[in-house]
Design goal:
Layout: E1 13-17, H1 26-39, E2 43-48, H2 51-54, H3 77-84, H4 88-100, E3 104-109, H5 112-120, E4 126-128, H6 136-143, E5 149-152, H7 158-170, E6 176-181, H8 196-204, E7 207-212, H9 218-225, E8 230-234, H10 252-269, H11 281-285, E9 289-292, E10 307-310, H12 321-324
Keywords: Transferase
GO molecular function: N-acetylneuraminate synthase activity; N-acylneuraminate-9-phosphate synthase activity
Domain AFP-like: 289-344
């Protein structure tokens, strides 16, 4: 497949990331997939690694999360990844269910063995995680599959993003989407820097989107309005169930709101050439104009006592009120008669 399968005609492709929210249970993972399908999201994503493929079973400060981390302080990397990983035997049933429910299903590989494994499952697209943006051999291997690539730029400098894009193109990838991403968990809206998106599109000539680790929907909706073609959010059944990613994950009802809100944001952009539209016809009819406000007879003088600017339209525009004052009515007119020049 040479191009990223798209979602609806309007709005970005909404990717629901399960990550470690399965909490070690395949039935729960499948329940999350079903819940995602009910929201109208377009794709399900998981992550393909084991603790042994992504790190070493070493207990030293370098192999632990920093003490001050909001979610995983002081945790040994090996233990964290052992808890969070999705067993490879679960990939096929998760993918099959997602496809059966009409969604795209794909994954993030973290090493060459993961890519080889995912190729046996014929995934239609690959995601490169933020931290792996510097793993140019991995990016090259994924590019050589000929599949579209989505690359998160969290933690990356412009130069590192440029190297990743160059490696992907050199490897043969012709469909690249760069995701703005703040690689902190949870991320703060102040750190989203969404204006990177149009800048990346201009600099690198790629499609752009957002991998969103903030709480709530606002940042993703803003990204949709800025032209995101892909938006990725972590999803769980219930945050109260706990788990390594639950704190910054959406629940299904929130994901459904996100799908609708992003679609609305894109539709709302419309055209810079549009001013009054047919949708405003009734409001246009009700704009104020000049009316006879008290019964008048021929020979009466127009004054603030008998001519006013009121809703609806139909009479002269309000800007003409000074020109009507002092004129002589040439006919009787009851209150509610629109003011026209032929009344004088």
């Amino acid at each position: 497949m040479s191009s990223l399968p798209l979602g609806p005609e309007k709005g970005p492709l909404i990717v629901a990331e399960i990550s470690g929210n399965h909490n070690g249970s395949l039935p729960r993972a499948l329940e999350i997939v079903r819940a995602i399908a009910d929201t109208g999201a377009h794709a399900v994503k998981i992550q393909t690694y084991t603790a042994d493929t992504i790190t070493l079973n070493v207990d030293s400060p370098a192999f632990r999360v920093s003490d001050g981390h909001e979610l995983w302080a002081s945790r040994k990397l090996y233990d964290l990844y052992e808890e969070a990983h999705t067993p490879w035997a679960w990939h096929e049933p998760i993918f099959n269910l997602a496809r059966d429910l009409g969604m795209i299903a794909f994954s993030t590989p973290f090493d060459d063995t993961a890519v080889d494994f995912l190729e046996t499952l014929d995934v239609p697209v690959y995601k490169i995680a933020s931290l792996e943006i510097v793993d140019l051999p991995l990016i090259t291997q994924v590019a050589q599959t000929g599949k579209p690539m989505i690359i998160s730029v969290g933690t990356a400098s412009i130069a590192e993003a440029a190297e990743a894009v160059a490696a992907a193109k050199a490897g043969g990838c012709t469909d690249i989407t760069l995701l703005a991403c703040t690689s902190s968990y949870p991320a703060q809206p102040d750190d989203a820097n969404l204006l990177r998106m149009p800048a990346m599109a201009q600099i690198f000539g790629t499609k752009v989107g957002l991998s969103d680790h903030t709480m709530g929907l606002g940042v993703s909706v803003a990204a949709a309005a800025l032209g995101a073609s892909v938006i990725e959010k972590h999803v769980t059944l219930r945050r109260s169930d706990g788990g390594v990613d639950s704190a910054f994950s959406l629940e299904p009802a929130e994901l459904a709101q996100l799908v609708e809100a992003c679609d609305m944001a894109v539709r709302a952009l419309g055209s810079a050439d549009a001013w009054a539209t047919s949708a405003e016809n009734e409001s246009l009819r009700l704009r104020p104009s000049l009316y006879v406000s008290a019964d008048v007879r021929a020979g009466d003088v127009a004054s603030p006592l008998n001519v006013r600017s009121v809703r609806p339209g139909g009479g002269l525009p309000p800007k003409e009120i000074d020109r009507t004052m002092g004129r002589i009515f040439n006919t009787d007119a009851p209150a509610g008669t629109p003011i026209t020049w032929d009344l004088f």
